[in-house]
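Meet today's protein:

…
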Amino acid sequence: MFLKNILFCVIFTHNIWRFQLIIVSLWRNFNAIYKMSEENKIENELRYCYKYPHPSVTTDCVIFGFDGTKLRILLVQRGVEPYKGRWAFPGGFMKMDESAEEGALRELQEETGLEGAYIRQFHTFTAPHRDPRERVITIAYYALVRMQNVIGGDDATDAKWFALDEVPQLAFDHDQILRKAEQAYRQQTHAEPAGCEVVPDQVTTKELHNLYEAILDVRFDRRNFYNKMKRLEMLEQMNETVNPSQKKEAFLFRFNKAKYEELKQKGFRLEF
């Protein structure tokens, strides 16, 4: 009986040892399979990725407004470093799930409250050291909008319209961006109509004349301007008049929106 008990213990111990070996072997195989699966997953994810540093991407919005006499520019005051307290264009880092235009419109709304602007991309700024934080390229947009009240939000402590001749020194390379935006918008105005988005529904030729002078930064004869607008059939004369001065009345005009859109699509060459 004693020998039987000893034999049973030996066999039982041997079986436990074999079972432990099986468990260890299965665990090792599982780990190997899991590791291989993870490696394959990473390999598949990185199959088309190159091992190069990736720059960050931001968007910036150059928003022009017209006060009836001259152009103004919308700026925000930075509430964070770098350049805390300096004025800059509304903008910020693009999210992974949005396009550049979507990011630009989102940042514009978050930092100024302005919505519905028809923005157009005009340049990408890629200087290696344009941002002290890291390698950042920015995609820049501009728009001409009807001026409205704005308020600083998100990481902007303030938002404000500035006359172009009163713009302070800007953060980052935004002085360069502003110059490029002015140049690009003037070139666009020579090839496409402007003003429908910013002037009142009924406008005098003087008001429209002032807008074009402000955009192009030139002075030209008002009669010559009116004749060019008339030939383009872009304006429709109304029956109403206003009295801009005691000497004479001025007819009111409105944009022929169908012709306006046609010229915008076809383009033209406007010279004064």
In short: The first strand starts at residue 56 and ends at 66. The first helix runs from residue 2 to 45. The CA atoms of residues 189 and 270 lie 8 Å apart.
